Each structure stands twice: as C-alpha cells, then as structure tokens.
Amino acid sequence: MAFYKNVSNISVYLLNSPFGNLICLRLRIIMRYCSQDMMRTREVQERNVSAYFPKGKVVFFATGNFHKFDEARRVLAEFKIATAMLRVKTIEIQDDSIENIAKTSAIDALRKTGLPLIVEDAGLFIEALNGFPGPYSSYVYRTLGTRGILKLMDKESQREAYFLSVVAFSSPKRLRPICFQGKVEGTITHKERGKKGFGFDPIFEPLGANEKTFAEMEAEQKNEYSHRAQALRKFASWYSK
Ligand code: IMP
Fold first, then answer.
1. Beta strand 117-126 pairing with 58-62
2. Catalytic residue at 121?
3. Is the peptide bond before 18 cis (omega within 30 degrees of 0)?
4. How close is the Cα of 135 to the center of ligand 1, in Å?
5. What is the pTM of this model?
6. At 169, which helix (H) or strand (E)?
7. I need a labelling partner for 110 at 20 to 30 A (CA). Which of 45, 78, 127, 130 fits?
C-alpha cells in the first residue's frame, strides 16, 4: 500500500475472504494522501487501487456498525466478493432522501481513503406515522428508541411499516456514486421481541417470516428478507459483472 501517504489513521479490519470465513486480521492501515500528491499521481493511484483491489473481487464497507458489516459480508460472500470494514468518520447529512445521505457519505469516504467502497444508509418508514422516522431513523433511535416508537403506536391498529436501504458504491474510477435500493415490508409489533440484531430489529416483523421479528433471527435468516441484503445483492451482481 505504498501509494498511500501516512497522514491520518483509518482502521480497516475484519477482512472477509471470498469463501465467507471471517479472517480477523486487524489491519491498522495508515492512509490518506494530501491533495497535491493526489493531483500529481492520480492516474498511478487509480491503477494501483484497481490492481490491489480488483472490481468484482474486493470492496470496502465504510461503516461503524459491526452488525451491518456482519450482514453485508455474508451477502457479499455469496458473490465471492471479499470485504473489509472500513472505520472512517464520514459526513452524515440530514436529508429527506436516504439516497442523498448515502451518496454524500460515499463521496466523503472516497475522498478520505481513495478506496473502492460502499456506504449504506437505511430507514424505517411507518405508514400510520406518515413515513416517520424514515430518513431520521438514526436520530429517532438515539432519542426515542424502540420503546418510544411503541408508545407512539400504542393505540394504532394499522401497523404496516417498511425498511428501505440504499447502498452507494464509489471508487477512484467512479467518483459519482452508483446506488442500489432494497425494501422489506412488514409490521410493527406490540412489544419488543428477540435479542439479536440491532436498532429497530426487536419491533419489526417482516412479511412472510412466521411472525418472527428480525431480532429473533440469525443473521443468515435476516438476510433472506432484509432491505440491506436486497440492496447488497443488487450491488454485488452489478459489481461482479
Ligand atoms: P443508518 O443511518 O443506516 O445507520 O440507520 C438509521 C437507523 O435505522 C439506525 O440507527 C438503526 O436504528 C435503524 N436501522 C437501520 N437498519 C436497520 C436494520 O436492519 N434493523 C433495525 N434497525 C435498523
């Protein structure tokens, strides 16, 4: 990785082999190039990045959420795509569109690392609440949590909801991100059920899953239904071509 200049720390770890094994390589790669070098050696960098991380074989997942990474690495392994969790702080704008949020983060992550990467953004849309919390899911989860949502839904008999996910891919050869969407329909439960997963998993029951919430499923089973797995499969089949 000689083509990276050592300026700041970005942790890359948990490299997933194309065969689905989790090789716990805790790589602490120090990278980021200063803009002058970037202008001078851009072509070289593009060539090097493609050589080290060929399209269709390797992609970095910029996220701080291990659950998301764990779900993603399993889906990408179905396509023999190796992935590593890239911990890099990216801009997360407030916007009505999940796609815009994902795109902005992908552009920012690419600017900071120069690596071929995906960013994923998701939201829970509850029909009886006119789509709330939607793109504000992260903030609402931190402030109201699952219990707060259950309170808002207390007397509500219409409990339909869906999760939407957008995966944005960006690389030195594709500065403008390309996006892939996934959606799963389901209902909001009356109480929390299950301990697995994260976020709103204990209160979301996907359609056709024998009334199990996401939090009552192993990651493999969640991946049969989830918004994220669907978006990632679309990305992976495009990326592998
Ligand atoms: P993010 O901005 O993509 O991290 O997602 C926004 C919020 O939606 C997160 O804080 C989670 O609470 C929730 N969320 C996203 N994806 C899922 C999921 O697969 N299950 C449960 N909650 C999720």
1. parallel
2. yes
3. no
4. 10
5. 0.87
6. strand 160-171
7. 78
Q: Is the CB of 213 under 6 A from ligand 1?
A: no
Q: Give the whole-angstrom CA distance, residue 18 versus residue 162.
A: 31
| Domains of the chain and CATH, by start | 8-239 (3.90.950.10)
Ligand 1 pocket check for 90: Cβ under 6 Å: no
Identity of the amino acid at 218: E
pLDDT at 91: 85
Atom 15 of ligand 1, nearest CA residue: 122
C-alpha 106/C-alpha 178 separation (Å) is 10
- CA gap 194, 203 in Å, rounded: 9
Nearest one of 54, 61, 46 to 12, comparing CA atoms: 61
The alpha carbon of 147 and the centre of ligand 1 are apart by a number of angstroms equal to 15
With tokens 């957008």, the residue in question is: 166
Q: For residue 194, which of 178, 179, 207, 213 has the smallest C-alpha distance? A: 213
Task: Specify the residue with its C-alpha closest to ligand 1, atom 13.
Answer: 199
CA distance 218 to 163: 18
Going by CA atoms, what residue is nearest to atom 9 of ligand 1? 138
Does the C-beta of 137 come closer than 6 Å to ligand 1? Answer: yes
**Does the beta carbon of 206 lie inside 6 Å of ligand 1?**
no
- Ligand 1 lined by 140 (C-beta under 6 Å): no
Q: What is the pLDDT of residue 85?
A: 87
Interval 71-81: pLDDT, tens: 999 999 999 99
- pLDDT < 50 regions, the chain: 1-9, 18-40
- Look up residue 76 and give its two tokens: 């990408």
